[in-house]
Amino acid sequence: MRAYPSLERTFARLAALEGASGILGWDSQTLMPDGAAEGRADQLAVLRGLAHEILTGPEMADRLAAARDEALDPGQRANLAEMARSHRHAASVPGDLVEASSRAVSKAEMTWRTARADSDFARLAPDLAEVLRLQREIGQAKGAALGLSPYDALLDGYDPGMRRAVIDPIFAVLRAELPGLVAAIAERQAQEPAPLPLAGPFPVEAQRGIGLALMTAAGFDFTRGRLDVSLHPFCGGATDDVRITTRYDESDVMRALMGVLHETGHALYEQGRPAAWRTQPAGQARGMTLHESQSLIVEMQACRSAEFFRYLAPLLRDSLGRSGPEWEAENLHRLGTRVAPGLIRVDADEATYPAHILLRYDLETAMIAGDLAVADLPGAFNEGLHKLLGVTPPNDRLGCLQDIHWPGGAWGYFPTYTLGALTAAQLFAAARGAVPDLMAGLAQGDFGPLRGWLRRTIHARGSLAETGTIIAEATGAPLGPEAFLRHLRARYLEA
Amino acid sequence: MRAYPSLERTFARLAALEGASGILGWDSQTLMPDGAAEGRADQLAVLRGLAHEILTGPEMADRLAAARDEALDPGQRANLAEMARSHRHAASVPGDLVEASSRAVSKAEMTWRTARADSDFARLAPDLAEVLRLQREIGQAKGAALGLSPYDALLDGYDPGMRRAVIDPIFAVLRAELPGLVAAIAERQAQEPAPLPLAGPFPVEAQRGIGLALMTAAGFDFTRGRLDVSLHPFCGGATDDVRITTRYDESDVMRALMGVLHETGHALYEQGRPAAWRTQPAGQARGMTLHESQSLIVEMQACRSAEFFRYLAPLLRDSLGRSGPEWEAENLHRLGTRVAPGLIRVDADEATYPAHILLRYDLETAMIAGDLAVADLPGAFNEGLHKLLGVTPPNDRLGCLQDIHWPGGAWGYFPTYTLGALTAAQLFAAARGAVPDLMAGLAQGDFGPLRGWLRRTIHARGSLAETGTIIAEATGAPLGPEAFLRHLRARYLEA
């Protein structure tokens, strides 16, 4: 009996467990009553524990080794490599540590919800310290097995192959270039007349209707996905059941819509993964740098272009029953490309966003290394943000409590946001070169040309190749900061 | 190391898997996009398969045997007996049969949705035949292991200890008594002036608001549950996350509300189970006869009483902004206690409802025995309904396609509806005798006295005693048809 086919069956079961956890996780953040939190934490911990048992079962290493000697086509070979990678990651962490971490994360996420609302970091601190303690244990265990530092080992879990040694020189360029660039943009925008504000209220139902129209235009498949509401927008769910969320602010229509476009970018990646590999590791999204590149190529590259606002303006006017100069495409475009240092990462413009990531990257690498204690996080956060952007959070709700990632156990995740932004800029430049009618399409709400190029070069490749290979083959160059900096100069200083 | 504590840990994991399946099953019927059906079927099949593996693992029988010789208190002893029962049920069915059945059910349920809408039995027939084939296999395998007929073995899975030998004599009394009783009620109601109809439309949001108010009055805990919408109302979810559904008809306000009250009865049972045993078999609801008794004691015994309509009438008038003689309590009571043979089981009044069950019981026992083929089901259904109630479905949508149970794999479930109705009548008579202010409470929307009695005598007992013991201790008599027949005579012929 050949080992490879039996591995495919086992990994299909793992994919089903992953899908079940995805839907339960989605439910936790959208619909679940508060009193169900403890039971839900048990459910997720048990599912993760069982997946871990299957992935690290006594015969798994033998079957993986045996399959390596079997005749496989290149797709199967890539799939086997991904199976082995998953196994290595899982086998390096004891099962009780996995379950303990899952439970600690569920508890900390629930605490975070109220601690954030009340701006009460002290309430979260013990739960967060427990999550960090377990993340450090996981990083050390994985690092020892994979020959990586603890932080690189955690990072590799989100973005296979990514290393601090790759990130640090790229981030050094951003640290050097961005402050001057942001200042130049601010100076130029200060010399222009201020864009006209959009006066609310904007009813939630109308906002939701526009969001659904934009998702449809972008090519979201509603037979295999949904749009719902959560405190922190995300793209989750399962294969063939991709669920994105947003949150509505009746005073700010652009916020929810740009959020919807962002998550739609993630969703298009999920819905465009190779169907033939849908239950297999090779059919999954490649990693978070590419994933974030797909959200940002839609939200930032495509949908903050002057061309896209020519499509969006009449849609907004008709859907909201508004008119006037503030609803003209040019004004909307200027509103949508306003650059100003602010406190909240998810509200940041694309020029100041990397500063939020540089800060979190510095802080989480220090916490994982044991150089920064949880108790000292609020002070370090506020000081760091002031140094990087010149603004200081007046409280922790607007400071280190704003993101779910740390209580959510997603350590090593933050840098992929900015790596994704750089990748998006590099991909979009390549797409514009390769697809002549791309921008003309966007001006009419036709995402087909862009989506077609992304399907071919990114989505349909799943995990059949490495991130570096996919980027290099799509753009003709390795990942770097140059395309992103060129994009900022072109959009904000040269247009 | 003692076996019993390790069994408790294992069964807590099983409870978490059960809860995960409960939420995923709820999602399938409320929110899931159509294209996700195949993936969801995989998820549920894998979860059930894993639970089955755990329950039938090589050391489970040994641990159960070892625990029997350990010092246990009475609660632990009852818990161990339930563990052993679950194990016996599971171990008698091969794992691949469990997974095949789960997949067949998921597929048939999806087909049923469109086949029912289009009244196209032929479309469902192949999927239904496959579900039946696997149910017969399961019944035979369980029956052989438990020393039961295949049908009794399936029945025992829903209602531990229930047997055809118990049901048949009780159902024989109903077969003999009900036709005459229904005719007498119809004759009496025909002599009275017809109740005034309620003219719609009734907006869904207003109906939902009334439903939530009734759930609150009944004591539903919204921190541990939800109300949503599905095609076929049900009570599902997980421990501490009890989710009931209803469906709204803008032309019929009583339909959704009585549905909400019915499912609220189920939910009160789930929310009132013994907290100390929440993750253990002894903490689960005892079986479907008692479960249905809890929905019917709320919907039929309490909420179709003249007293309850004195509370409901002003609530409806205020919530819907209506007035007039048709909205007086007496008219609403007469509308809510109208007896008339009809086609649809879930719309049937309590006097004709048992006929729908007698029919389904006859048909499903014949199908499990191999005496009735799926192809012959529509004809047998229509003929049987005509014989029992004098009405004939004009199409299969209003006939054998109306219920999800058979495509849903719930064979051996139907009789528990009527056994539940008999139990509800017997319990309510006992409650009225034991709690003097029970009816006065209902007249003011105060369910506290009834709920308190049910919590003590039924809910909090979980599975710590047998169904027969629970009923006998609560009512002073074994389960029989007499209290139900007395209730019908008192409400419909003597009031």
Automatic annotation (TrEMBL), chains A, B:
EC number of the protein: 3.4.17.19
Species, as recorded = Methylobacterium symbioticum
Keyword annotations: Carboxypeptidase, Hydrolase, Metal-binding, Metalloprotease, Protease, Zinc
- What job does the chain carry out? Broad specificity carboxypetidase that releases amino acids sequentially from the C-terminus, including neutral, aromatic, polar and basic residues.
Q: Name one GO biological process term.
A: proteolysis
Q: Give the cofactor note.
A: Binds 1 zinc ion per subunit.
Name the protein family.
Belongs to the peptidase M32 family.
Residues reported in the UniProt entry to bind Zn(2+)? 262, 266, 292
Listed cofactors: Zn(2+)
Metal-binding among keywords: yes
Q: Which residues form the signal peptide?
A: none
What name does this protein carry? Metal-dependent carboxypeptidase
Family annotation (Pfam families)? Peptidase_M32
The record's section on Gene3D superfamilies has:
1.10.1370.30
Q: Which GO terms describe its molecular function?
A: metal ion binding; metallocarboxypeptidase activity
Catalytic residues per the record?
Answer: 263
Q: What does the record give as the reaction this protein catalyses?
A: Release of a C-terminal amino acid with broad specificity, except for -Pro
